[in-house]
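Section handout, structural biology tutorial.
Before the tutorial, make sure you can parse a SMILES string by hand: atoms, branches in parentheses, ring closures as digits. In the record below the ligand is flavin mononucleotide, and the chain has 308 residues. In the tutorial you will relate the predicted structure tokens back to the input. Do not try to memorize them.
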Amino acid sequence: MTTRTFDAHDFRRALGNFATGITIITARGADGELTGVTANSFNSVSLDPPLILWSLDKRSSSNVVFEQASHFAVNILAAEQIDLSNHFARSHPDKFAGIAHDSGLGGAPLLPGCAARLQCESFQRLDGGDHWILVGKVVDFDDQGRDPLLYHRGAYSLLMPHPQTPRHHAADPSKGESRLDSHLLYLMLQAVNAYQTSYGPRQQASGLETSEARVLMVLDENPGLDLAGLQHEAAMPASEIEEAMTSLAQRGLLERSPGHCALTAPGQQQVEQLWAIVHAQEEAVFAGIERSDLEIFKRVLRQVIAAH
Ligand SMILES: Cc1cc2nc3c(=O)[nH]c(=O)nc-3n(C[C@H](O)[C@H](O)[C@H](O)COP(=O)(O)O)c2cc1C
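Predicted structure of the complex:
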């Protein structure tokens, strides 16, 4: 049987369609040094015995610590922990300097504010190509039930309950409004879903990946933004931003010099096209709605956002 060869970048992109949560996996090494690695390869394996796994890049500087550690902790991140995710996605001589944490089993750091935390005994280490597959036996856990931080196609995402398809009878006045049909969260979810479903394909037709489109639009709004600012505004990890910027520069849409990047003239044209897609989508979704009603709608949304 012949094995199909494929482009590593395309393969990674295809895998990115599988949305995941984000964890920071922590451990203490034999000499007491602490490490933590942002990882989305985490998964559950078995309920009895309670086993989980994740995979660690063999090139990671944290390998020695995980090899020696009797335990490791899986900190499942909550939606507002993007900064922590970005922090533990970079190599650093002391990743825990200035980071609040408690000490768990085997000295593995436990981070506050997570959705849940699993404390594991190191159970098995399997060879998985360019990664080690680390299996842990869960010996303790806590579950705060906070909304999780999600990751999809290179960008941080939020959990949105699936609103199912709209129930058209709500528009029939003779049926009256059910409590569900007038439930604001349910209405907002359905509206966002209706908006997004047709927006994705329109944006993809631009020939850019979502991450590339995001970087271009953020740079257009905030010229001269540095990497930290871009990470914040685009809600993407540094590695994804780097990749998007490299691809945009190769296509002549972005000019990069140390510490600075700017859209080129073709980049400016491309970003105008992207804004045109955004406006066309708005026009299509809100077609037939009075401008004055739209202004009220925007005001209500802004008030809700400001109040919370
Ligand atoms: C969203 C996201 C998910 C990641 N998932 C993994 C993973 O599952 N395994 C891994 O080895 N590295 C993963 N990384 C990369 C590591 O976090 C990063 O290489 C590591 O923290 C670098 O520090 P080190 O020197 O301790 O290896 C991920 C990065 C991001 C941004």
